[in-house]
Amino acid sequence: MKSLLAVLMLLMSLVLVPLAWDWRSPSLAEFRSWALLALIVLSLILIVAEIRLLMSSRTKQLALRVLSQLGLLAAVLVLTSTLVVEARFHWVRYRVLHADPQKLERLGRHFIVGYRNLSEVQELVRLRAVAGVFVSGGNVNGKSVTDVRKQIQSIQDIRREQGLSPLWIATDQEGGAVCRLSPPLTRMPPLSEVIGRYSDTLQREQAVRQFAAEQGRELADLGVNLNFAPVVDLNRQVINPRDRYTRIFQRAISGDPAVVAQVAAWYCAALEEAGVRCTLKHFPGLGRVFEDTHLNHAKLDTSVAKLTKTDWVPFRALMREGRAFTMLGHVRLSAIDSEHPVSMSSPVIAGLLRGEWNYDGVLITDNFSMLAVYRSSEGMDNGCIQALNAGVDLILISWDADQYYRVMYALLKADRQGKLDREALKRSDQRLARSIRFLKY
Questions:
Q1: Which of 221, 240, 226, 356 is nearest to 279 (CA)?
Q2: Per residue in 61-106, pLDDT tens?
Q3: In this structure, which CATH number among 3.40.50.360, 3.20.20.300, 2.40.30.20, 1.10.150.170 belongs to the domain 100-435?
Q4: Which end of the chain has the least Cβ crowding within 10 Å, N or C?
Q5: Per DSSP, what are the bridge partners of residue 133?
């Protein structure tokens, strides 16, 4: 019986070891406090149980003692790893918050971050450590429009007092399945449903513009000035039962690139008239992609020639105008760079977009704490360096705000070591300066 117990406790400790090293993963962000408590409590219970088993007068059998000793070592490793990971996070956070103010401001202008704690993001704004704030469902749940407006205004007031330009206040308010701020804002249908009601082009245009105008008024009234919409990925009817978050087949406007380009143009024009900037997403197009980059690596294996004639038509049509932001997805574009997610790929960003396409508008990554980046060989640390050096302007960390400190710490270190491309950052600063020229409080 004791041998079985020793085996079970050893197995439990071994199962907990990898979790103890990675419990600060973005996938556990919602349960992080509970994960920390559970790891500490379980490891202490296992340590006490193993010690009692070793001290028992009946544990003279060599095999049993070895099992108990191994179990004790594993349980101690779980506890130690858990505490080391937590201590390192707080040390990194402290170093970022007490970094050289000028360096923090210079690098911070390349970040838009989400938040769970309002006072924490307010502190980052005071330190000029971010360029914008992402507002999600968790920030508005149970709040009225007035409450949310005051919350956003409290963030912008800090910038106004500093004599700086307004922050980008961003959200995901597409319509349909992705309406982060509904409620309190009106939940609107997806654009595909809006255009599906009309076959006449003029009626379609009027409906889309009315849709965007209403959405824009509500967002602007709240204080939001950047919307991560429209989705211009083509609807290829790719359905993955394990796809929990991306679901392009539900969010895409159409499978026809000409229709998508036209509808997106109407939408962006009307949204901007309301004072809200639009964002084209998710380059290079996720309509053909099976895997969900929130949870896994993914590849787009279509040729450049085919993408140019189809999936990239809406992107190129709207990117020529230069005012819309363009969001880079974390899929790997096999035809150009099969090793790196597009969001940090120099051949795609510097080579194709900034080079061949001569695109000089703002590029923002999709949420950098998605597992396609977090689990990549570069990780978030090296990935953010590669992204900025390649020509990305803004790194989005919308889901797990704690990851901001890790990424910023890596950038501060890279800056000290001369690993950041100063010319690339200078060009990015110029693009960002142009983008905020007409922002108003």
A1: 226
A2: 777 778 888 889 999 999 999 999 999 999 999 999 999 999 999 9
A3: 3.20.20.300
A4: N
A5: 113, 169
Contact between 271 and 216 (Cβ < 8 Å):
yes
Structure token digits, residue 296: 């896994």
Q: Which residues are identified as catalytic?
A: 294, 366
* Residues 288-334 pLDDT 10s: 999 999 999 999 999 999 999 999 999 999 998 768 999 999 999 99
- What pTM was computed for the model? 0.94
CA distance 328 to 388: 12
What is the amino acid identity at position 100?
Answer: D
Burial 116-147 (b: 16+ CB within 10 A, else e): eeeeebbebbebbbbbbbbbbeebbeeeeeee
Q: Which of 435, 304, 431 is nearest to 360 (CA)?
A: 431
Q: Under DSSP, is residue 375 helix (H, G, I), strand (E, B) or coil? A: coil
Cβ distance 346 to 355 under 8 Å?
no
**E strands of 330-394, at which residues?**
332-333, 363-365
